[in-house]
Amino acid sequence: MHTIYQTTITHIGEHACDALLDNMLITFREGAPADIEAFCFIHSHGALNADLAPGCTLELAGHRYPVTAVGSVAGQNLRELGHITLRFDGSEQAEYPGCVHVAGQTPCDIPTGSTIKFIA
């Protein structure tokens, strides 16, 4: 297995955990506009070394989730903005172009310092 992308959560926006109640996690790299930052898990931005695709694995805060669908612009958004919306619903079709869907239970606690990593 090789790492496609890896980053560390450095800040959690005031309303970011609210999305977890809807089985979503929204990320953005450091330097996000303040109105967006409030709803995101902010991270130090890493390099995207390959395309995200169904079949790869998300490692988040010590848990592994199989990737089931990737929206058409999710990779570009992650590369350029550090922005994706993770959906913990196991869907095999992306709901929106910037979504990455994974199978598994939505995490209830993602502390600052947690790692987000995609591996293939």
Automatic annotation (TrEMBL):
Could you provide one GO biological process annotation from this protein's UniProt record?
A: phosphoenolpyruvate-dependent sugar phosphotransferase system
Q: Which InterPro entries match?
A: PTS_IIA_glucitol/sorbitol-sp, PTS_IIA_glucitol/sorbitol_sf
Quote the Pfam families the UniProt record gives: PTSIIA_gutA (PF03829)
Q: List, in alphabetical order, the Gene Ontology terms for molecular function in this entry.
A: kinase activity; protein-N(PI)-phosphohistidine-sugar phosphotransferase activity
GO cellular component terms given for this protein: cytoplasm
Sites bearing Phosphohistidine, chain numbering: H43
Instruction: Please give the NCBIfam families that the UniProt record associates with this protein.
Output: PRK10377.1
Return the protein name.
PTS glucitol/sorbitol transporter subunit IIA
Organism expressing this protein natively: Mangrovibacter phragmitis
